[in-house]
Amino acid sequence: MPAFLHNTGQLLLGSRFFRTWYIFSLSLIIVSLPFSKVGISIGQMMIAGGWVMERFPYRRFFDYLNSKSGFLAFLTFIPLAIFLMLVAILQGFRQFFSQKAAMIFSSIFILHLAGLIFTTDFDYAGKDLRTKLPLLLLPLLIATSEPFDRKGFYYLLVLFAATVLCRTLYNGFLILHDQFIDIREVSRNVSHIILSLLIVLSICSLIYLSFRNSCFPLWLRWIFRLTAGWFLFYLFYSQSFTGISILVILFLLFLLLQIIHTRNNWLRAGLILAVLAASTTLVLSLRSVVLDYYRVNPVDFKRLDKVSSRGNPYLNDSLSRLTENGNYLWIYVQMEEMREVWNKRSTIPFDSLSKKKEVCAFTVIRFLSSKGWRKDGDAVERLTEAEIGAIEKGVPNYLFIGNLSLRARIYEFLSGFDTYRETGNPTGSTVMQRVEFWKASLGIIREHWLTGVGTGDMNIAFDREYERMQTKLAPDQRWRSHNQFLSILVGFGIPGLAWFLFAIFYPWYLRGYRYDFFMNLFLLIALLSMLTEDTIESQTGVTFFAFFYTLFLFARSREDRLFK
What we know:
The chain has helices at 2-13, 17-32, 37-55, 58-66, 70-97, 100-114, 122-132, 134-143, 150-176, 192-211, 218-237, 241-261, 265-294, 335-345, 360-370, 377-382, 385-392, 407-423, 430-447, 458-469, 484-510, 517-530, 539-554, and strands at residues 323-324, 327-328. By secondary structure, the protein is mainly α.
């Protein structure tokens, strides 16, 4: 047995096995990010296993076994292997301790460990720490591994973009064939927000690779440009408001940087005009949609019909000013007629919840109002089968049935805003719910501004705060901050937020990557997402953040500047 083990050890020591293993493991994480949480976990375990075994002192191990008799070698095989694995881990940590920037970034995980001091719910704290483990694991493993040369790094980016392309093509197929309830859930096992961040990162990376370097042939660079164009189309096709917003901000920042760095006065003037034109177009487009939404079709409330064509009395609420496409919601409402006809035409009862988990009756009223129809039995009879199916899915406006317009998302926001302003209930509006989440966060922060509530007690703190606020949010919608900076403040107080920001920015400064295109691009995308999302509170989100931060900052031998 020792001779066999000796030969095996020589094979491993004399090959590039561990480098290949490392690259394969990184690639598995990359291809799993848009698809599989299981793949992400397996990839990280594979990197960790390879990292330990690469440092394992094989020669010492085999020399010891060869020096002992067969029985004694067999008896000491496992204890010796465990001991030497611990030695290998300690050696890896010694390398890690010499990487000051990586240690500082990984201290975000230590911050969560420190939060246990103020925790009472250790079950949730344990789950949260397991979720945050990539913040420690990935800097440790990647920063102490051999960096990639420029070409190898670019190949990883191309693999990443190809994987995102597969995800968006599959999602596009699902959208085209109407295989979803809420278009934001079309990615299913991956958050639509995280997917939009992956898409934006892919767009900008492909544009850089297609214009700023010659590592790839011209035909392949044209494929990069076409793929970036598809990603841009997909963001609109899937109504990804977050992705489009971040991309617009990045585009405007890019134009501003071009203005600052260009020495050609004519080019500078042209770019300034381009920024002004783009900003003006955006503002005017939004203004047009808002004005169209708030346009109200005139109604003489003194001359409203009292009964329907079927002889039943209408509800005419002249005090409510809620509208849909300029038509008042609460006039010409005959609930009994709608209920009777709807229940004959649909498998979802009128008084139950739609597939979107919203009150079906209210969705019917909004949909009929959007078409300018009365809300009675005759109107429900006029609906097509496709419109019935759309209402069952929770579509409240006939304009929203198309997939290529952002008008639906803007109308959704405005409708939620009006409902929140009139009733105080934000349920059903993602933006107004966030306002309620932020109110609850600020309420907790006022009470725990110095130390926070700890790693494990955030859910408890939010439950108490929502009760104190007497919120009208539905119980199953009472979530946490949906703002990463507020989440850190809630958990760890002002000192915790200060350290969180220091741990993000100081390594970037210390490594001298202040002008690197990819690092700055990633930081902008991640930090912008943190304004409206708890980006590192989910497995996919924290892996996205930790993986690309360490990849761009520690896994490259050279930086890539936008302006040279």
